[in-house]
Design goal:
about 240 residues; alpha+beta; Arc Repressor Mutant, subunit A; Chorismate lyase; 2 domains; about 25% helix
Length: about 240
């Protein structure tokens, strides 16, 4: 079966970008030149470019050109922030593929992290977030029900922290994040549109107001789309 022309252009450009023949920040040749390089129409070039834009590898700005951008979203761990903050600050479009909310009972592990009794009622928020229209992570947020009186279980929540601040005056001041690596289960791969066993970043986060734990987040992020950074100060000898 013959490969469509736009896929041939897409595959070639994608390989050139991922193999760093074009560095981050580089400007691709203009469309007329790409048409001559690949011997295809402008429509074909634009379709391939659009696929790479949606994948987060290119950015098209009128009057500036088509620029190679970092595919990964970077989150700085030196300050309290969210995945949503990081997606937006990295110049990508934030979205919400799905949101499901239920009430559950606190397991022994969750109760310990939240300093509550086993079996206490929790609001559990399941979400699939997207970056540039592609799934990037699965998130489960667990919040004690007593903190959210009259909570609307049908509320879509692309920006949970902002919602909690606006409706309940909840502002987290710090968090404890435990980050590890894991492989996607079949169920996770179906939700994220990746292959089973693909690498994920697995994050356990406890959010605090002052010294009081208020929320537990369990996050699985596609590893080749996301990374964390942290700034360390000068070395000191203890």
């Amino acid at each position: 079966m013959t490969t469509p022309a736009y896929m041939r252009v897409y595959n070639t450009l994608r390989s050139q970008i991922t193999e760093k023949q074009y560095d981050i920040g580089a400007i691709l040749p203009p469309e007329p030149k790409l048409e001559k390089i690949f011997c295809v129409s402008r429509t074909t070039i634009r379709k391939a470019i659009d696929m790479l834009v949606r994948e987060g590898l290119l950015s098209v700005r009128q009057g500036f050109g088509t620029q190679v951008i970092s595919r990964k979203t970077v989150q700085n761990l030196n300050r309290f922030s969210s995945i949503s903050d990081s997606i937006v600050k990295n110049g990508k479009k934030l979205g919400l593929k799905s949101c499901y909310i239920e009430k559950v009972e606190a397991t022994k592990e969750l109760a310990s992290m939240l300093n509550i009794s086993v079996g206490s009622r929790l609001i559990c928020i399941h979400r699939i977030k997207t970056s540039n229209d592609s799934p990037i992570c699965l998130i489960k947020n667990y919040i004690p029900e007593q903190m959210l009186p009259d909570f609307d279980m049908d509320t879509p929540l692309p920006l949970l922290y902002e919602y909690l601040k606006e409706h309940y005056g909840i502002v987290y001041t710090s968090s404890k994040d435990i980050i590890s690596a894991c492989n996607a289960t079949f169920e996770q791969s179906q939700m994220l549109g990746i292959k089973p066993q693909a690498a994920l970043l697995h994050v356990h986060r406890i959010c605090y107001m002052g010294f009081h734990p208020c929320e537990v987040d369990i996050v699985d992020i596609i590893a080749d789309l996301y990374e964390y950074e942290v700034f360390l100060g000068e070395q000191c000898n203890l």
